[in-house]
Design a protein that fits this description.
It is built from 18 helices and 31 strands. It is an alpha/beta fold and 794 residues long.
Length: 794
């Protein structure tokens, strides 16, 4: 019964729609005839039509041919409808229904469906009427065509047609802060309307009085292509413009209803933009054909399982440069030829790209974003960036993007003061302005802003196939008093300094990512002791997969900067991290932040002469890879870049001709491959079951030793760190098992630039208890070196 009733209803709807189309045709014909007669009678009186906004004196009477409104029927002198937002006094009166115009339309003009109607009904009705009108035009033109003329001539066109990609449910989700695929709805989208090809535009500007699309297709006319405001309180302006094609430039010209403010804005949802300093958006389609299916299957198969994470952080514009071509950076396509094979050979599991979203100032390194959905066009097109990611995946390298939901710049064409109000940011500078970066802070309490940001996060995971997002400056989001003095911040509703809106937003963000992309990573750059950053949202945590271990980084670099003769007094700095190493799921970062702003390169932080500097750095890396947690290293550090990072110049790749630099690079390469081969180094990266101290109290010799453990008894590794240049010939340590222990790795190997002090023969464990264990071995400890040992099985 249900199926039969449904079919009857559908047939009735089709008949009604056809009836509406026929009625519309007849009404159009009658109105056209009447309008023609009136136009002929008044031909000498009516002035020629003008493009753009009419002057005030020209808006005193209804346009010829416009259907009379109720008000006009009762009073011929009634004022006609005008574009733009009605005044408050006008909205309090019973609304008149004038003819549809560009600008703020009446409900009739946008074919607003009644409450409870199907979301797409208005679109279907508009399209049906339009199809019928276009068929009539085709038939009339064909009948009047003469020999030698085309059968179908160009149809008359209007500037903007009412059309929508949004349903009532879309609007509901948008207002609730739960629409996470807005990039499919807002922005510019090439499409067909009836038989016309063009582009649909939609933008959120609730406090605008008029929104127009201006671009190279209309000679940047600010008035000719005005969008329609939806009459559902969403604040979204939309419309279809014929003949606007992929590759065309455009902006939105927004007239605010406040202070006579008007401005030209880039599209917040644009997929492509001009190369800075130009600021126009570009109509673009993301129809790339991916070839990374094998990688996607692998990612799904290992999701949730212990795996190594060795991340290479890099800046696209300064990794390599073409010196012979005016020192320009490599394009995405050129990077696709060089970067993936290099990372695969070096053994890195992932690459983390500093922000590749469009940013106007290169000195911001990408952390001042104006185009959240647009790839930085300095290095190529969106498809070129997709190609780079695709090739990285084909080489077995995952891709993590830096993502910046914490703040945005004040550039006029960007998000700031978007519609003449503080739309995306807080109006009060105590909440909406960041003193450290002179930028605006997102209003996380506004649902539409939450939809915008979470849609953006999912956009990069969806359309660009990235494997994870590293969220920048999380600490600045969590605290209302971050980098502010007393009186410069507003407490929350409970009187505290916690930003409750940002906390809620981060939880929603992580929940949305892990629900739709359960095998994707989210990583927090969070520098405080905020609890449960990587805890489950259901248990009160923020929901991140990993958190940068900033405390480890600061303590470790401070320790290694000391001359070895003083390190005995700082033993606690190198061991303290293990007290809290398993309180979160940590990633150990040696990032770009440690090699800028006068901090010096990692190599130059090390004390002593050149030999000791390189020996210290090799020891630091080996200690880092043996320490629990995932790993991250900034580009250039793998071969000992001797100067601070400069975003305007290439890394000093020519230094690899020198043995110390090439030896350090080989050290990193071997560590990466060993890390991936030995389960003990990653099986319990985030759990105490994978770590056990042997001796952390030998401060006099600046020696520490510990075990890393896998899931099987024979997988243990003994790690011994000697942080002085002294060689210890007969150094005794307790071990858990009898048998032969063999040297697996040694940073003092001559291949790496070391002195070549080794434990070349297997070392037999003897039954002499030490360090709480029943057996012990006697080792030779090389200078300023870290050695790994493993029990020989069989």
């Amino acid at each position: 019964m249900a199926k039969k009733k449904e079919g009857t209803t559908a047939g009735t709807k089709q008949k009604k729609a056809a009836g509406k189309a026929t009625a519309a045709k007849e009404r159009t014909a009658k109105k056209g005839a009447k309008a023609g007669q009136e136009a002929k009678a008044e031909e000498t009186e009516k002035p020629a039509a003008k493009r753009g906004r009419k002057k005030a004196g020209e808006m005193t009477a209804p346009e010829a041919g416009a259907p009379p409104t109720t008000a006009q029927a009762g009073k011929e002198t009634a004022a006609p409808a005008r574009r733009g937002r009605k005044k408050k006094t006008e909205t309090e009166q019973p609304p008149a229904k004038p003819a549809a115009k560009r600008g703020r339309p009446s409900k009739k003009a946008t074919a607003q469906p009644a409450a409870g109607a199907q979301p797409v009904a208005e679109d279907i009705e508009v399209f049906l009427i339009m199809e019928q009108d276009l068929d009539d035009l085709d038939r009339q033109m064909a009948e009047t065509a003469t020999e030698g003329q085309p059968e179908v001539m160009d149809r008359p066109s209007q500037a903007v047609y009412p059309a929508s990609r949004l349903t009532d449910f879309d609007i509901y989700l948008f207002k609730e802060g739960k629409h996470f695929s807005l990039y499919e709805k807002l922005g510019s989208h090439p499409m067909e309307l009836g038989r016309m090809r063009g582009t649909y535009f939609a933008v959120w500007a609730p406090n605008a009085d008029q929104v127009s699309v201006m671009g190279d297709f209309n000679s940047w006319d600010r008035e000719s292509h005005q969008l329609y405001l939806r009459q559902d309180g969403s604040g979204i302006w939309e419309g279809f413009i014929p003949d606007v094609q992929t590759g065309m430039l455009y902006k939105y010209h927004i007239k605010s209803r406040y202070h006579l403010y008007h401005v030209e804005k880039s599209d917040p949802f644009a997929f492509c933009c001009e190369t800075p300093p130009q600021t126009a958006s570009v109509v673009h389609e993301l129809n790339y054909e991916w070839q990374d299916q094998q990688w996607a299957e692998y990612r799904r198969s290992v999701a949730g399982q212990p795996q190594p994470y060795s991340v290479y952080e890099m800046h696209v514009g300064s990794w390599r440069r073409k010196h012979e071509d005016n020192n320009r950076p490599l394009t995405y396509r050129e990077l696709a030829e060089e970067l993936p094979p290099y990372l695969k050979e070096m053994g890195f599991t992932h690459v983390e790209l500093m922000p590749v979203m469009l940013h106007p100032f290169k000195g911001s390194w990408g952390y001042q974003v104006t185009g959240y959905f647009a790839a930085d066009s300095t290095y190529g097109s969106p498809h070129d960036l997709m190609h780079l990611i695709d090739v990285l995946h084909q080489h077995g390298v995952g891709v993590i993007l830096d993502w910046v939901p914490s703040h945005f710049p004040s550039d006029e064409h960007g998000l700031a003061y978007f519609d003449g109000t503080h739309l995306f940011e807080h109006a009060d500078p105590r909440k909406g302005f960041h003193p450290d970066w002179n930028s605006y802070i997102f209003n996380y309490g506004r649902n539409e802003v939450r939809s915008f940001l979470i849609s953006n996060a999912l956009f990069w995971l969806d359309k660009y196939h990235v494997d994870g997002l590293r969220v920048d400056a999380v600490a600045s989001m969590l605290y209302l008093d971050y980098s502010r003095r007393e009186g410069e911040w507003i407490p929350n509703e409970y009187g505290g300094r916690e930003n409750l809106e940002a906390i809620s937003f981060l939880k929603d963000f992580n929940s949305a990512v892990h629900e739709r992309f359960p095998d994707a990573l989210t990583i927090a750059e969070e520098s405080t002791a905020w609890p449960a950053v990587t805890g489950a949202v259901a248990q009160g945590g923020l929901g991140f997969n990993m958190k940068w271990m900033m405390g480890w980084m600061h303590d470790t670099l401070h320790y290694f900067s000391k001359d070895p003769i003083y390190r005995m007094h700082h033993q606690g700095e190198i061991t303290f991290s293990l007290i809290y190493a398993f309180s979160e799921r940590f990633m150990l970062p040696l990032s770009h932040d440690e090699v800028v702003h006068g901090k010096g390169a990692l190599l130059r932080k090390m004390p002593g002469d050149e030999w000791r500097q390189f020996a210290n750095l090799r020891a630091l890396y080996a200690y880092m890879f043996a320490h629990p947690g995932a790993k991250l290293l900034f580009m250039g550090s793998e071969f000992g870049q001797p100067t601070e990072w400069n975003h305007d110049r290439s890394l000093d790749w020519h230094l690899l001709q020198y043995s110390f630099h090439s030896g350090l690079q080989q050290t990193l390469c071997d560590l990466n491959h060993l890390y991936r081969q030995e389960p003990a180094l990653y099986a319990h990266n985030f759990a105490p079951a994978g770590f056990e101290w042997v001796d952390h109290q030998d401060a006099h010799n600046s020696v520490i030793s510990f075990l890393r453990k896998g899931n099987q008894p024979g997988e243990e590794l003994l790690v011994v760190c000697n942080f002085t240049p002294a060689v210890h010939e007969h150094y005794r340590l307790g071990v858990p098992h009898p048998g032969q222990w063999v040297q697996l790795f040694n940073t003092d190997d001559a291949r790496y630039g070391g002195s070549g002090v080794h434990n070349t023969e297997p070392i037999e464990a003897i039954a002499e208890p030490l360090h709480g264990r029943n057996y012990s071995i006697i080792l030779k400890l090389p200078p300023l070196a870290v050695t790994y040992f493993k029990l020989r099985v069989g």
